[in-house]
Amino acid sequence: MALITAYWGLDGLIVLTTLMVAAYLYMTRKFNYWKKKGVMEVKPIPFLGNFADFLKKAPGYFIKDLYDQAKGAPYIGFYILDKPFLLIRDRELVKNILVKDFNYFSDRYASPGTQDRLGYSSLFFIKNPAWKALRTKLTPIFTSGKLKKMYELMEICGENLDTYLDSLKLEGKGKEIEVKDLAAKFTTDIIGCTAYGLNVNSLNNPDAEFRKYGKMIFDYDNVRGYELFAVFFLPDLARMIGIKTFGKDSSAFLRKVFWETINHRMESGEKRNDLIDILIDLKKTYGSQDIDGFKFDGDDLVAQAAVFFTGGFETASTTIAFTLYELTVHADIQSKLRKEIYDALEKTNGKITYDMVNKCYYYRRIFRTKKNANAAFLDRIAVDTYKIPNSDLVLEKGMPVYISMLGMHFDPEYFPDPEKFDPERFSEENKRNRPPCVYFPFGEGPRICIGARLGLLQTKLGLIKILSKYELSPSERTLIPMVLNPKAPLTSPLGRRVDEDRHFFINRMALITDCWGQDVVIVVAILIIIAYLYMTRNFKYWQKRGILELSPTPFFGNFAQCLFLRRAPADFLKDLYDRAKGLPYVGFYVLDKPFLLLCDRELVKNIMIKDFNQFSDRYSGASPTDRIGYATLFFLQNPAWKIVRNKLSPFFTSGKLKNMFNLMLECGDNLEKYLESLGLEGDGKTIEVIELIGKFTTDIVGSTAYGLNCNSFKYPNTEFRKYARMIFTYTLKRAYELLSVFFLPHIVRMLNMQVFGKETTNFMRKVFWETFTARMESNMKRNDLIDILVELKKTQGNKDIEGFKFDGDDLLAQPASFFSAGSETTAVSVAFLLHQLAVYPDIQTKLRSKILDALSKTNGEITYDMTMSLPYLEMVVSESLRMYPPLGYLNRIANNTYKMPNSDLVVEKGTPIFISMLGMHFDPEYFPNPNKFDPERFTEENKQNRPSCVYFPFGDGPHMCIGTRFAYLQMKLSIIKILAKFEIVPCEKTLIPMVIDQRAAMTSPLNGVIHLNIRRVNTNRK
């Protein structure tokens, strides 16, 4: 009933392919634009253009690399997404665009959206003719006379800087200071004072709102970095999604402060000869006039103060900080500059005057040198069709044109040895010998930064104030050489843009058709079809063999919900088991691979026990490069598995466990003391029980396997506990790693995933070898796992067992597996059990009574024999493990071709075989009313009446978990310790019924937590 073909899947593929082809054709329609015009270009990537490079480095350095790459060429073309851009290299062309032919390039390409009036209408972004009218009106504030009057206000800020530095008591060795923040506070105070008439005093009040919102504008986190990038390079996108140039919060703050100041100034009649005064006059005189969509009122007026605020403090503070850095690294230049400052101050009797600041010649050289290293790029847009002089190239209206300041400032043709900080480049002689339009830190031509002189003035004042009294030297955290933030633009925000004409060019030299674009579409379509055919080649594998199978989806098989972490694998397999009721098996697919789920208990018995030699290996697997995962007993393949298991089995005998019980009991006593310390009398307290039991099991594993006293209750942040949690904390990455280990082992090998995670692997390696080396050197014996491994290394370390050695990471893999399974897995199992006891208080009461009866016979002492001889406790633990087995499924892989008994089905070598524990544990045929928690299922009579191979929480047969008895012992001891003195009841956070985390490859509660209320009970018996 599909629309195009007979299959919905094929319909979807056709639609998807058509959309991809259309998108490809649209996004590549302009590629070869520059090549067709005979211009050198950077080869673009479909859908990204050269944008991918912007994701790796700051825009200024990407454009500089283009400049360097095009050495000898006058320009070079590049692409952002699908749009052609042009970078100008030739200095004469730069001069034409910025100065001579300014009327053709009067607007910037970058631009905020018109709905962001604070950004759109600022002098920096506004386009001609409104720009020219506005600039003419604002120019008076930046004349020499105005600056000289404002200097008196700036001096006050300089005195505050002086006072602040004095207060830090920098005598002697001094102190480490973050100079970017120091400079920003100083420049923020100056802008607040000279533009808004406010005493901001950021130096003494670092939480001042002016400073807070100023920082937010240039806080280059990922979101803010991309917002500013979009304004500069993707203005269409900035307009479409409504990006705010100054950020939402800062825009609101600037608007609020501006109108408060304006209203106060207009009401009081006060005059300060600052920006606010000029804007008031403009509002009064021109407020009703419309200048090409701009008005001297509302947000259009606020925009001028806003851009003055941001440009004034950020550019100057960055320049001060970088200059101080260079002076720190070049101590000789710092000394020479300080001497010039001293000489100048001597002539003014120690007073820093406006004229003195502007006459420090060596200082000017240093400052220009620093600006040489701080600039980035300029942008313009062709407002009309423009023919490049002395060439055939015609730039169409709307074409973005870029100029690399960094490229020219670091061009050895103009600045020999450009990486060197050398103020002598700016001696009068060197300046005269250098061609024009190769140095322009504030831009050039009519659109040069209007506030350049103010920026220079405040920067010079700040540096003189610091250098006249203080010496700069590197600290331990000083980065040498300097490392720049790749997310941040290197100068203030740039330009605006005008919509461009669109053109479509076709290259007539393709391979299949007459068009490269069509060739690529054909190739992409062919690749998609090939991928489809490949990923569906095995579909109907089971159907052809007469076996029920689930209808698979192309590319996902039946595993889509698990792959998208919407369904736990154990739940998926249980559902398969239920759907195949009455059948011996059912087929399914993971991606393109056929899997078989066994439903018949006799076949399960054959696979796990009778015909074990045909299925001795698990399908799950680790990468051979991850030896700590690959060589664990859990994942190791036969015959190495059999040999290693035989060597490790002595550690888990009843005798060994009995010897270790005293160590475990110490951990149990710590659990009891911890609970006593919580003051659980009365109503008790809510406790997250997985973490509670996790501390207990971590301490046991640390003691019995590694010989360490972790004491997680006293030290909850101990590394052992931290890394045990990390293994089964289901972050997105960790969830996919564990899912892949069990169902996609080829992906694990391909991506070199680590079973235990990178950090945990490194921790276990460190702890193991420290303990192991100490044990070998001291010859101490503790009868624990380390002792067994020491002996194995001594006697078997040189032997190669099918690629396995009792040495290195292969040796470490054994306690690593014990560490992960023995701590966190057991903790989760105990937590599930406690949840069931809370929900079923009658069972809890009965179990407590049995425990207290046993304790009365041992005078209150918990012994190994007493722990193992509580039948009702055994029943309760078994029932909890029935409902919540640590891993809800088992898997094997056919080592050879295998014929299923009493059937015609031949399982091919390499076929994955899965068994659903949950399916069998919840099968009403074996466990009536399976959703009920009923320990009576595990009376001796009921166990004898139940068929074999339907209950196996730790597996069955030779591959059964080697640590089963150890896990049971931990679980029983923890339950005895808790129930002997405490009662478990549900709390507000307790989930009833229990909800399983669908992201987890192993059985885990939602979000990995179980909250219960624990309270002290009176267990005294008369």
Kindly describe this structure:
It comes from Ooceraea biroi. It holds the Pfam family p450. This protein is of the alpha+beta class and 1022 residues long. The protein has 3 domains: 1-30, no CATH class; 91-468, Orthogonal Bundle (Cytochrome p450); 576-1016, Cytochrome p450 (Orthogonal Bundle). The protein contains 41 helices and 15 strands. It has a 4-stranded mixed beta sheet with strand order 1-2-6-3. α31 crosses α32 (745-751) and α35 packs across α38 (871-883). The termini are far apart.
Briefly, what is this?
With 1022 residues, this protein is of the alpha+beta class. 50% of the residues lie in helices and 6% in strands.
Q: From the helix content, strand content and strand pairing, which structural class follows? A: alpha+beta
Main beta sheet:
4 strands, mixed
Number of helices: 41
End-to-end separation in angstroms reads 77 Å
How many domain modules? 3
Going by CATH, what is the homologous superfamily of the largest domain? Cytochrome P450
What's the CATH architecture of the largest domain?
A: Orthogonal Bundle
Task: Give the overall shape.
Answer: elongated
- As a percent range, the share of strand residues is 5-15%
Number of strands: 15
Give the neighbour order of strands across the main sheet: 1-2-6-3
| Low-pLDDT runs | 370-375, 489-511
CATH-defined fold name of the largest domain: Cytochrome p450
Mean of pLDDT: 85
Helix coverage percent of residues?
40-55%
CATH class of the largest domain equals Mainly Alpha
Radius of gyration: 38 Å
